[in-house]
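Same chain as my last thread, 122 residues:
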Amino acid sequence: MHAYVTDLIDRRLEVARQCGADWTANAHNTDAASQLVGREPLGLDVVFECSAIRPASIRAVKLLGPGGTLMLVGIAAPERLEFDHHTMRRKELTFKSVRRQRGCVAPVIEMIASAASIPARW
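reply #2:
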């Protein structure tokens, strides 16, 4: 399995590489979608779409292979995103939304790093 990361901020891409990303690209100056299609001609199994902007969501669906899963992480400003139903149907895609909560990631990372047990309320 490979991890490919695109972003608009170089510092985030640097962190992704440090965490083991196989490939990164700044979407401001790279046609990342074309490069990814070249690397994965059958499509990707999972795409995390974190911007919730229409062009990125459309590209994410196009990058998925048959049976792929789109993880919707971004919070859409207009409160709605539209997708091509025919592409979703033909590829048999799964869409999953991810609920984010501010301030909950750091404590979990600290628990994992310190090998502490997870409190019962979690």
